[in-house]
Amino acid sequence: MTNLSAILDDIATEMAVETERGAVATYIPELAKVSPDHFGIAVVTRDGHIHSAGDAAMPFSIQSVSKVFTLSMALERLGEKCWRRVGREPSGDPFNSIVQLEADNGIPRNPLINAGAIVISDILLADRTPSATIERILAFIQMAADDAAISIDNAVACSERDTGERNMALAHFIRASGNLDHPADRTLEVYFNQCAIAMSCVQLAKAGRMFAFTQQFDPDVLAPITPQHARQVNALMLTCGHYDGSGEFASEVGLPGKSGVGGGILAIVPGIASIAVWSPGLNAVGNSHLGALALERLAHRMGWSVFGTT
Ligand code: GLN
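Above: the input record for the complex with glutamine. Below: its predicted structure, written as tokens.
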């Protein structure tokens, strides 16, 4: 693994001169303030080494990458019963699509689209206040990343709440269908705040270790997620983690990955590495344009793929 740092440096240099960088999300006004020039990447390997390049220490809004952590918490809390309230199939639709929900009777297609993640937030809210639930989510991520400095960007959370009509529509529809135990505004309070968690690539790659090296955690010391649940989350990342761009990401990168509209992507090489990449410019389906390109090059140069090396 000695050349990994050199490969990351090369990729960061290549990304710095790319002129096609995608477009920064504007529907959450606070995200529109971020420069598309940023690029960062960090990799944590099985031996615990952290390799990084570019803006890897700069915090960004993790947005939908949070959905894999809240899903993990819900699986630990409710186990297989989660799958009664949310499906496990690719949606083939945009992340904030409304049309599918009615056809599916308020059972979102998977937990990585907005509708599904809102149901997961509702599961985590059981017997707790929204603020206690948000604290637990943050504590879970801090523990996984081994970094108590990780925090919520309140400006982003407010910005999302102020412009969150689409998510409100999703939540109200799910509630009307009988699949939300709490009022929509309470559930969304959790959802908006989890999306507003700010992390650097280094912190995110460290948190992603729970999906890459689950067996390695000593269950008595730190067991964020069981191996069985890690496998389920990885499978969902591969099939659904990039919304209607999931098939292309799986075929070009060949790794489970979860994107967010802040431009971050968490990618997992099971048993080998946890990778976080960040570049704020998005492609047409809302996934980081350079993030996916960088992962494609890294996976190719390292021979990393869940489908074996080719
Ligand atoms: N907070 C964003 C939203 O709800 C998350 C979407 C995303 O990252 N794809 O619209």
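Notes for the reader.
Strands lie at 40-45, 50-54, 60-61, 151-152, 197-199, 257-259, 264-269, 273-278.
The first strand starts at residue 40 and ends at 45.
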